[in-house]
């Protein structure tokens, strides 16, 4: 399940996809609706790499749609799932994964927040730089 933030690094070709492919496992990836065109371009690059590496055609598949995520988690051939997104969506999929006749591993990153603590001394001595660094990395944290 693709992340909505940082689509090039954490989405289509993110760590879960790469790890599964490196282990020789087929991947069914559900693209995030927020950046379908980016997901499509990255998927094409993955498919080309699979071809160049001599892996079987169909090792990587990308799908689109809302309810399809639940259908994937419920499908008996799916043996594990990874998800990045909202707490509500992640918990719904987790509950489906655990309610199967044989529960499957479900790895989720859900609605994390990156707190920033700036102590008074740091604010006084380098407040401008802290502000610039913080603004420069908006939406890049998980």
UniProtKB/TrEMBL annotation:
Keywords: Oxidoreductase
A molecular function GO annotation: oxidoreductase activity
InterPro entries cross-referenced by the UniProt entry: Ald_DH/histidinol_DH, Ald_DH_N, Aldehyde_DH_dom, Aldehyde_DH_Superfamily
Domain Aldehyde dehydrogenase: 5-122
UniProt protein name: Aldehyde dehydrogenase family protein
Gene source species: Acinetobacter baumannii
